[in-house]
Amino acid sequence: QADLVESGGGSVQSGGSLRLSCATSGHPYTWVSMAWFRQVAGKEREGVAGIGRGERTPDYVYSASVKGRFTISRDEVNNALLLQMNNLTPEHTAMYYCAAVHTNWQSRAYLLNPSSYRFWGRGTQVTVSS
Length: 130
Prior knowledge:
single chain, mainly beta, seven-stranded mixed β-sheet, four-stranded antiparallel β-sheet, 1 helix, 47% strand
């Protein structure tokens, strides 16, 4: 099933910005917890940013390396998950993946853990040059 499709990646110079989008299909409102992960060759998949749903306000969590640079949000109108990436550096070069699950995770430990997610997109490449 093709429920998650990433887009918006590309090549930028250091200091530039990109906006990633994860389009959802099928039953988008059943995706309770969603997140962005990144991975480079030879390394483990790393949690970047995640969103859980509280009773009134969603939970937002970020890895220490991107907080203040990246912003995760839900585009409820277009049924998409967004990641605004600012002030990029070569260290941010990686394949970025969108993930979702029906479980309402609410803690950092679960929201940024790849084992917490069942559904994944195929990824979009981000390359930052010096």
